[in-house]
Design a protein that fits this description.
Layout lengths: L1 H10 L7 H24 L3 H10 L8 H5 L19 H12 L1 H4 L21 H13 L12 E6 L8 E8 L24 E6 L8 E5 L4 H9 L4 H11 E2 L6 H15 L16
Parallel strand pairs: 1-4
Antiparallel strand pairs: 1-2, 2-3, 4-5
Helix pairs in contact: 1-2, 7-8
């Protein structure tokens, strides 16, 4: 499957191709995506498969429901056994991450794991305090995330630059269906705001940061409290006024340079320049 995706989108893709080439590429990618979805479901227990698959195709266009709702006897065939919790998807993610730990660099996705330290954001090491604050933020879900940037970098500023910490907050946008070629996020009928979530990562992830936040250790509790209690755009604006770094902020480039240096330290081989064209001044 991955090989076919490579030849479709990389080796065999012509960026200057005509409309027919572009459309047939997109159509074939749809079928590869559905094949990948079937492979993923096969790793899960029989029970939740149908419900998970249906959640991917809410409100699909006429005609597609026949393709999706066709014979699906394989959904009732158990392939992988041994699940021990009532959250098989999360259990599968953990198993894959543990299997690939040498490549992924450890458990840096805080939203996927329970807090291993005290929930008090004012005790423990600075890293423990920061992790606890980020665990709290990771619980935000649904409509409350509408005002949030897609990718935000957080700089925990300690007394020594060598011990400063970086985190990434990624807003995961949920869609009712992705089967239509011409429908985008501007079509409210396709967005599923109620199921938006946050991914919280130790370190820096992403090439297009939308916003920077700078926080001192003694401000972590207040930062987490304010972040989790944002209900309106005005709440978000007040929050940004305290911890955010807008483009017009005199320390904008100093902050951007710190993240750039931190990324080079974190990924000495793969790091590159962050693209700030999508940075939001809000």
């Amino acid at each position: 499957l991955l090989e076919r995706i490579h030849y479709l989108l990389v080796a065999g893709f012509n960026v200057f191709g005509n409309m027919k080439h572009q459309l047939t590429t997109r159509l074939y990618m749809d079928f590869l995506r559905m094949e990948g979805e079937d492979n993923y479901l096969a790793f899960l227990p029989v029970g939740p498969r149908k419900e998970i698959m249906d959640s991917w195709y809410v409100g699909i266009r006429t005609g597609m429901d026949e393709r999706i709702g066709g014979p699906m006897e394989w959904l009732d065939v158990e392939v992988v056994t041994g699940y021990e919790t009532d959250k098989p998807q999360l259990e599968l993610y953990h198993h894959i991450e543990n299997r690939l730990e040498a490549l992924t660099g450890g458990h840096n996705y805080l939203d996927r794991y329970e807090q291993a330290t005290s929930t008090d954001t004012q005790t423990g090491t600075i890293e423990q305090q920061a992790d606890n604050a980020m665990h709290t933020i990771a619980d935000i879900k649904g409509d409350a995330l509408r005002a949030f940037p897609d990718v935000a970098f957080v700089h925990i500023k300690t007394t020594s630059p060598e011990t400063d910490l970086a985190y990434t907050l990624i807003r995961n946008k949920a869609y009712l269906s992705v089967t239509s070629l011409l429908v985008d996020e501007s079509n409210r009928d396709q967005r599923d705001y109620a199921h938006d979530t946050l991914t919280v990562v130790r370190g820096l992830e992403g090439s297009y940061p939308n916003f920077f936040f700078v926080v001192k250790p003694e401000e972590l509790e207040d930062f987490a409290y304010r972040y989790t209690n944002i209900k309106t755009r005005d709440d978000y604006e007040r929050f940004v006024g305290i911890y955010g770094i807008r483009r017009t902020n005199e320390s904008f480039w100093e902050t951007a340079d710190w993240f750039q240096d931190k990324y080079a330290e974190q990924e000495p081989v793969q790091s590159g320049l962050f693209d700030l064209n999508r940075y939001e001044n809000r």
